[in-house]
From TrEMBL:
<dbReference type="InterPro" id="IPR000212">
    <property type="entry name" value="DNA_helicase_UvrD/REP"/>
</dbReference>
<dbReference type="Pfam" id="PF13245">
    <property type="entry name" value="AAA_19"/>
</dbReference>
<feature type="domain" description="UvrD-like helicase ATP-binding">
    <location>
        <begin position="182"/>
        <end position="552"/>
    </location>
</feature>
<dbReference type="InterPro" id="IPR027417">
    <property type="entry name" value="P-loop_NTPase"/>
</dbReference>
<feature type="binding site">
    <location>
        <begin position="203"/>
        <end position="210"/>
    </location>
    <ligand>
        <name>ATP</name>
    </ligand>
</feature>
<keyword id="KW-0378">Hydrolase</keyword>
<protein>
    <submittedName>
        <fullName>AAA family ATPase</fullName>
    </submittedName>
</protein>
<keyword id="KW-0547">Nucleotide-binding</keyword>
<dbReference type="InterPro" id="IPR014016">
    <property type="entry name" value="UvrD-like_ATP-bd"/>
</dbReference>
<keyword id="KW-0347">Helicase</keyword>
<keyword id="KW-0067">ATP-binding</keyword>
Length: 695
């Protein structure tokens, strides 16, 4: 039998160490499972103290089990060989041996920071940085970087081409993965930025903004778990497609307690997945829409009575429209419509009593008068009609019919026509912030159904009590806010969407990720102003990521020319990888388009190992879906749904149609082109956009 090569010996050595770590992981899992069993047993003690102990033990042990299970795949991913001969292993969570000695350092711990920050120019005491590539608990590959050759012993083995470039060449699948093993120095600086204030991460496509932001969320939970776990971390992305794409990242880093929501799911109990038309979306998102909604919320609703009269003893008691308006103003100066219902009734009784002048009525007194009104059907019917409990969704539906009344000085007649024509019966993604604004303006209704709350189904009793106390104190679960809010693709948010998020982050720290050149909001400067208003006076830490790790240089150099049509002076990154394959552009006759799209999609599937996207304007999505091959690796998407995603190959259909769809068409086209990591093909019936790019 031949002797193993140095590479094979290194692999065997690392596998032996990884086996030891997994053995300790298994022992920790058994301990956590036993604590769950013990905790459940304490529930049989028969008194409240036993129930509290049960809940606490089961809750904490279950959380530990979740973290251990989530970190199982690829638990150990790094090793540092330090000056002096010591080795330090880095992993998704920390692990200790039976003597409580650390055998695996959590990647978020200060001791692991040098794994990401050391460079050949500044090795920081690191001789060799090693990345272990694993499948489950098996080490299948090693990639080394020799950072300090002068300090390396003569027998030190260095394997591979470098972990980063090796990872860049691998095929994508349908989910985003942690890059915890290959984080670069500028990315690590953003991840470990100060916890307080707002961390704004900018940079062009493919620079790793999203995955850096998610790693930052995991890092914050590790460094100050009490604050961020009790207050909660909200991660907001552009679409449900995107949220499905990233949902595996945080659990793989040992975090399972973060709330992930698309921008259409931020408001509890309401979910939207469909966009309004670009023209309508631009109007719904304007900051002045908040003024319209305020007027709608504070004024009498459609069908509300404008006069009330009542016979009492010797008097006819009348409240005219001016009297009712004065009472309304007084009530709303001290509260919101849904929180002043009891006060409204009292004010009406008081105003009517002031009109009692007859002796028979005055002799009975005010208390008897109020008691009689309490059972008077006419009065109760009037109160319910004049000051009803208002549902935000129903009030939202009434807005189009009231535009002439509340918006004539804010929206032009043409804009009002668009709003009336396209106002949907069911909310679109762009309507959700309007409904949230109305919730805020109307106040919470006195009672709410249990299924309106977006909370975990299995809450411990102490969590339920704590939550109920907080809701009772504030009147709204949304007003509680989060300890940290992470916003991805932030450049797309409208002013109204920023208002919605700002309400959930009043006392939070923030991580904000975006690139102005990719904005789908027509006026990026207006969006930036709304963001600044949401952040208030908190300190801001800015980071720019400069290297494009996603796209081949051939694809990105072409896309960069498109970016110059999107905005002036776009933030362009440097692509570090070449494939030797240029983007290809096919122009065909209209009758040949669909057949050519089907052929190009099939060819792309044959050329790449990973995922393929066929992207078409929203109006052509159905016909394109009908002709492309059925394959688990292929997705058909409209342009906005590609935000934040990446594919090995992209077939873009009708680029001129993408440009024409909205005022932000060139920026959207830039987004679509930069989703491709390996190959890009465009198919269309004209070359107007290509001629513009060539100018």
């Amino acid at each position: 039998m031949s002797n193993p090569s140095p590479d094979e010996r290194e692999l065997e050595h690392e596998q032996a160490y990884v086996d030891t770590v997994y053995q300790r992981l298994e022992e920790s899992t058994k301990v956590a499972q036993s604590l769950v069993v013990e905790g459940l047993a304490r529930g049989h003690i028969g008194h409240e103290g036993g129930l509290v102990e049960r809940d606490a033990m089961v809750y904490q042990a279950s959380r530990r089990l979740s973290a251990l299970h989530a970190a199982h795949d690829g638990l150990v991913f790094g090793r540092l060989d330090l000056n002096g001969g010591d080795a330090r292993y880095i992993g998704r969570i920390g692990v200790r041996d039976e003597d409580r000695e650390i055998i695996l350092v959590d990647w978020r711990a200060p001791a692991a920071a040098v794994f990401y920050q050391a460079t050949a120019q500044d090795p920081a005491g690191v001789v060799r940085r090693r990345v272990l590539r694993c499948r489950g608990d098996r080490v299948v590959g090693i990639e080394d970087e020799l950072l300090d050759a002068e300090a390396a012993p003569d027998d030190m083995v260095v394997i591979g081409e470098g972990a980063l470039l090796a990872s860049l060449s691998r095929a994508r699948d349908s989910s985003m993965h942690s890059v915890v093993a290959t984080i670069q120095k500028e990315q690590d600086e953003a991840i470990r930025a100060p916890a307080r204030g707002a961390t704004i991460i900018g940079g062009g496509p493919g620079t790793g903004k999203t995955v850096v932001a998610l790693h930052r969320a995991a890092y914050l939970l590790y460094t100050d778990r009490r604050r961020f776990e009790s207050g909660g971390v909200l991660v907001v992305g552009p679409s449900g497609v995107f949220m499905n794409y990233i949902e595996r990242v945080l659990p793989s880093l040992g975090e399972t307690s973060v709330v992930l929501r698309s921008i259409g799911e931020v408001v509890d109990g309401i979910r939207a997945t469909r966009h309004a038309s670009p023209e309508m979306a631009a109007l719904l998102g304007l900051a002045r829409m908040a003024q319209v909604l305020s007027r709608v919320a504070r004024s009498p609703q459609a069908g509300a009575p404008h006069r009330f009269d009542l016979f009492y003893r010797d008097d006819r008691l009348v409240l005219e429209a001016s009297d009712l308006a004065r009472i309304r103003r007084r009530l709303l100066s001290n509260g919101l419509p849904n929180t002043t219902q009891a006060a409204a009734r009292e004010e009406l009784v008081k105003a009517l009593w002031e009109r009692v002048t007859g002796d028979r009525g005055l002799d009975r007194g005010e208390e008897a008068f109020a008691d009689q009104l309490d059972g008077d059907l006419t009065f109760e019917t009037f109160v319910d009609a004049w000051w009803p409990e208002l549902d935000p969704v129903e009030v939202w539906r009434s807005v189009p019919s009231r535009l002439g009344e509340v918006a004539s000085d804010l929206f032009t007649s043409f804009e009002q026509q668009v709003l009336r024509r396209e106002w949907a019966d069911q909310p679109t993604i762009e309507d959700i912030p309007l409904i949230d604004e109305l919730r805020h303006l109307l106040g919470e209704a006195p009672e709410r159904a249990e299924d309106d709350w977006a909370t975990p189904k299995q809450m411990m009793s102490f969590e339920e009590r704590e939550r109920e106390d907080r809701v009772q104190a504030t009147g709204s679960i949304d007003d509680l806010g989060y300890a940290h809010v992470l916003v991805d693709e932030a450049q797309d948010l409208s002013p109204m969407q920023w208002r919605m998020l700002g309400r959930r982050g009043r006392t939070a720290s923030w991580t904000i990720v975006g690139d102005e050149a990719q904005s789908s909001w027509p006026v990026p400067a207006e969006s930036a102003a709304a963001r600044d208003e949401a952040l208030g006076t908190m300190p801001v830490h800015r980071f720019r990521l400069s290297t494009n790790y996603r796209n081949s240089a051939e694809i990105y150099e072409f896309a960069a020319r498109v970016a110059t049509h999107a905005i002036e002076r776009p933030d362009l990154a440097e692509a570090v990888r070449r494939t030797g394959v240029d983007p290809r552009h096919e122009v065909v006759a209209a009758g040949e388009l669909l057949a050519r799209v089907a052929a190009e999609a099939a060819e792309m599937l044959a050329q790449v190992e990973g995922t393929v996207a066929v992207v078409a304007p929203a109006g052509r999505l159905a016909e394109v879906t009908a002709v492309v091959p059925a394959d688990d690796r292929l997705r058909v998407l409209e342009p906005l749904d590609t935000k934040g995603l990446e594919f090995d190959g992209v077939v873009l259909v009708d680029a001129d149609g993408v440009v024409a769809e909205a005022a932000s068409g060139w920026r959207t086209l830039y987004v679509v082109l930069t989703r491709a990591t390996q190959r890009l093909v465009t198919v269309g019936t004209s070359r107007r956009w290509l001629d513009r790019v060539a100018e």
